[in-house]
Each structure stands twice: as structure tokens, then as C-alpha cells.
Amino acid sequence: MSALVTEATILPNRPGLTGRLSDFLWKHPHVLLAVLLGPPVLWLGIIYLGSLFALLLQSFFSIDDFSGLINYEFTLATYRQLLSDANFDIIVRTVTMAAVVTLFSALIAFPIAYYAARYAKGKWKAVFYLGIMLPLWSSYLVKIYAWKLILAKEGILTWAFAKLHLLWLLDAWLSLPVIGGNSLSVSYTGTFLVFVYVWMPFMILPIQAALERVPGNLIEASSDLGGTPQQTFRHVLFPLALPGIVAGSIFTFSLTLGDYIIPQIIGSSRLFIGQAVYAQQGTAGNIPLAAAFTVVPIVIMGLYLWMAKRLGAFDAL
Amino acid sequence: MRSDRSTSAPLGLKIAAIGGLAFLHIPILLIFLYAFTTEEKSYQFPPPGLTLQWFAVTWNRPDVWAALTLSVKVATIATAIALVLGTLCAAAVSQTRFFGRETISLLVILPIALPGIITGIALRSAFSMADIPFSFWTIVLGHATFCIVVVYNNAVARFRRVSGSLIEASMDLGADGFQTFRHVILPNIGTALLAGGMLAFALSFDEVIVTTFTGGQQSTLPIWMLEELIRPRQRPVTNVVAMVVMLVTFLPILAAYYLTRDGDQIAGAGK
Fold first, then answer.
1. What DSSP assignment string belongs to A269-309?
2. 3.40.30.10, 1.10.260.40, 1.10.3720.10, 3.40.50.300: which CATH number matches A82-316?
3. Cα B208 to Cα B105: distance, rounded to the nearest angstrom
4. Measured between beta carbons, which residues in chain A are less than 8 angstroms from residue B13?
5. Cβ of A19: how many Cβ atoms within 10 Å?
6. Could you tell me if the ipTM is greater than 0.95?
7. Contact, A268 vs A190, CB < 8 A?
8. pTM of the model
């Protein structure tokens, strides 16, 4: 009975080529899916993943020390070279920098995100949104250039310290081991400041998104039940904002791990992973070692993403 | 009453938030100031004097124009490719359920989640293995790959709000799939696509890391800028170019903001 009704209500096939094609796709959703997904998946699969696998494969080759040519035989020698003291130092240095940059980015980003999510209304909401978006999207190189102007010996920072009669403080900071240097623009402090400046905006938006989903009455309930602002923050707000912080840290961590331009322009001569990759594939011509170096951020980010997924950070993106 | 506190922010929070925004904006303001400085040899602050002469000098530099033209061309074509691929992918992920949907999202995000140097060096070694000479098109190929995600994100967010019943209604009223796309889906997602396209353009226009690996002799504006950063030749010209680049990237961002801010009021979205 019901089959009969269905039969009668089905319209005749549509005329024309587009009509028939449309009918065909409607009746065969799998074909429609293939048509939709095919081009982007092929593009990303072949061009991107293909290149990525080709690169990873090369890390299992080695380079002939005498001829400088690549020896296409499976070996782990390149990885042994990667873990030699000098190269391992580079990895530790980069991961430490990425962790510190992520921590400070979160500290600076949180108040901005919290204010924007909870207190900014109407016009201020727009001001905050654009105030975050414009620095986030404005040119990466111009931002680095701005810091070159700021950190230069004759630049605004030295001028400000001089006006405040605090030059001794700057000199004392620069005379510290490791983080100091001849001037801010050739020290780790300089590299760190630029990293935080350039990647911090990526931290604000996910935190803001997470905080916006916290209902206001939850905070009120906490204080009605006698929680001090500190306790409310510690036990209510922070746990709910954590997925947002983790989502933001994916960006700050990953972007710092792979950057080679910032430490090249502002920083000491000691290398970061990105610079090592660049030097190995360029001047040294050692593609296998460069490939092995790129495996480090991939593995670290893989672990990081896996943990982030378990913390539910992807819902906060 | 404790709950009254929520109406205005504590002073400490206000200071931290405003301070954070100031930290983000002061360096950008400095770029605008330095474009007018008369100082040629150093980055002296405060500038000894202000002048407009460097705008004229920059205007007459053929190398700046060549780099700018190349950047605009690359960004335009990469954006066009990303628009098509990103929209297709977003349509598939948001309108249908299939095995491996999560994986597709991950695949799209990967080129931007992994550090740029990895994308760059992977493409470079693949191109040299396949004997593809570095050219304008290799730059476009690289840019399009990481621009897809921006379009995809915007389109997916909008597709989520386009009510499925609108599409079914259109089909029930006799429109075929293409007519439905043209007259129902496209008007609904149009502004999101435009916004995604603008952001993709800004992303490509500014890209430097992947470009250093996939470009041959050509220099885009960011590559030109990078050379000036490493070996400054004429600082005042760099100052002016920096300011112009800043302005050029601001415009698409502002446009994208105005296109998507009213995004919640779409017909039928209340369903």
C-alpha cells in the first residue's frame, strides 16, 4: 500500500542534461559526495600529503660525506646524527622557547579574551574584535620589522628607558647570561618578545570563544555559594577556559617550533630548528638531515594534537 | 549583592586587557611614524624630522612595483583555487554524513597547523624530485594549499546555519540541484565565501616562508621585504613599503568583518 503511494507521488524525470544529472546525483548521494570531495581531497592528498611523505622518506636516506650526494639506502644514520649533542641542543632550545612563548602568550591573552567575552558590549565588542583581528592578520614581516625598529640600540625602547632613568636596569638585564647579549636585538630576550608579539593574537580568539560559552549565571552561582573571585576563577572559569587555552597553544607552540625568520632577524647566532632545516637544505645541501629535523616538530605536534583532542580543544577552535 | 559585580569589570582586569591591546598596537603605530622620518641611516627615535619625500622615491622604484604586481597576481589565483576547493569540501562535510569526516577536517587544517617551513621544504623537494622548474605556478600551488583552510572554515560555519529544510523546500518545489545551488545556497553562503576569499587573499599576499621554498627567481613583496630586513639597502623605502603593506592587509580584514558580522540573521536560520 505504502509502496503504491510512493510510486504515485514520484515526479517524472526532469528533462535536459542538467536535469538528468541533478536527478542522478540526488538518487546517488555517494556520487555527489565523490564529486564534492574529489577535487579538494585529490589536491591536498597529492600535492600536500604526497610531498610530505616524500620528505619523510628522505630522512631515512643518508648523505655521502665525500661526494655530498644522497645515498638512497635505508638507514637510521641520519637520525643518529640528529641526536648528536649539537643538534639535540637545537631541539631543546627550540622546544623551551616554544613552551615559554606559549605560557606568556596565554598570560597576556587571557585578560584580553576575558574582557572581550564578558564585559565588552556593543561598540566596545567591535573595537575589541578588530583590535585583535588587525594585528593578527597584518603582515608578519612588517610586524618583525616594527620590532627591529623598537629593539634597535637607537630605538624607542632604549629612549624610553633613558627618559625613565632606568638604563642601568636594561644594562643589568643584558649582562645576564643566556638571555642577555650585546643589545636586545641580538639576544634571546629580543627573540622571545617578537615571538610573543607575533603569535599571541592566535591565543586570544580560542580563549574568547571558550569563555563566551561559559554562562554568566555559572559565575554568579559560584559567588552566591560563597566562592571568592579567586576560587571562582580557579574552580569554575579556568577549567572551562582550558580547552580554549589548549587550542590557542596549538598555534603558538607549532608556529614557534617551525619559525626560522624571527630568530634569523632578531636573535643570537645560535640556531633554532627552523634555521637548522633551512641551513641543511640550502647551504649544506643535506636534505636527509633537513628532513629528519622536520620530523621533530611533526612528532611533537602530533603528540600535542592527540592530547588536545582528548581535552576537547577542537570544539573551541 | 555579590552578583552585581558582573556588570563592570574589576580594575586589574581592565588594565591588563587595555595593556594587552596597547602591546599589540604600539608597534603598528610606530610603522606609520617611521614612514615619515627624515633619518636614513638608523632607526633613531624620536625621528629628527618628518618628510613626505620617501613616498615619491618609493613610487618611482620599479622593483617595488614588480614585487607588488607579482604578489597580487599570485594571491588572486591562489584565492580563486582555494574558493572552489574550500567550498566543495565544506559542502561535503557539512551537508552529508560519511565515514572519515573528521579526517577530512584534519587534512584541510594540516597545511596551516604544521609549521610553514615543513610545507615549504616538502613542496620544494617534491618539485625537484618531479623535475618541475620553480616558477610563478609553483608559488601559486603552495599558496592555494594553505589558503583552502580559511575558505573552508568560513564556509563550514555558514553552512551550519543554512537550514536543511530550505534546500529540501527548493527541491520539492521543482528546482534541480544546480538551480537550488544558484538561487538558494549561493545567496546564503555568498558573504561567507567573500569573507573567506578576502582572508585567503590577505594570507597569500603576506606569505613568506612557503614562498622562499617554492619560488624561483621571482620575488613577491614579502620576499622583497625579507631581503631588506636581512640586508637593509634603503631603510626609508622599506619604511614606506612596510606602511603600505600594513594598509593593504587592513582593507580585506575590515571588509571581511563587515561581511560576516550580521551573519546570524539569515533567512530560515532560526530553524
1. SS--HHHHHHHHHTTS--HHHHHHHHHHHHHHHHHHHHHHH
2. 1.10.3720.10
3. 25
4. 111, 114-115, 119
5. 15
6. no
7. no
8. 0.83
DSSP secondary structure string for all residues of B197-216 = HHHHHHHHHH--HHHHHH--
- What SS3 class is residue B98? coil
**Which pLDDT belongs to residue A103?**
94
A43, A149, A152, A221, B27 from A143: Cα distances, Å? 32, 10, 14, 43, 7
Predicted pLDDT of residue A313:
62
Q: What is the pLDDT of residue A270?
A: 84
- In this prediction, residue A317 has a pLDDT band, given cuts at 50, 70 and 90, of low
**pLDDT number for residue B90:** 84
Residue in B84, B92, B124 nearest the CB of A33:
B92
B2 belongs to a structural domain: no
What region, left, alpha or beta, does residue A285 occupy, with left being phi > 0 and alpha being psi -120 to 50 degrees?
left
Neighbours of A18 (CB within 10 A): 13
Q: Which chain B residue shows the shortest CA-CA distance from A139?
A: B206
What are the sequence ranges of the domains in chain A? 2-58, 82-316
B111 found inside a domain? yes
Of B162, B113, B159, B144, nearest in space to B207 by CA: B144
| Model confidence pLDDT, tens digit, residues A241-299 | 888 888 888 888 888 888 888 988 888 888 888 888 888 887 777 888 888 888 888 88
Residue A164 amino acid letter = L
CB contact burial B30-49 (16+ within 10 A = b; e otherwise) = bbebbbbbebeeebbbeeee
Nearest residue of B to residue A152, measured between CA atoms: B43
Q: For B81, name the nearest residue in chain A, comparing CA atoms only.
A: A40
3-state DSSP assignment of residue A63: strand
Q: Calculate mean pLDDT across residues A306-316.
A: 71
Cell 597553544 belongs to which residue? A249
Any domain includes B19:
no
Nearest to A139 among B119, B238, B246 (CB): B246
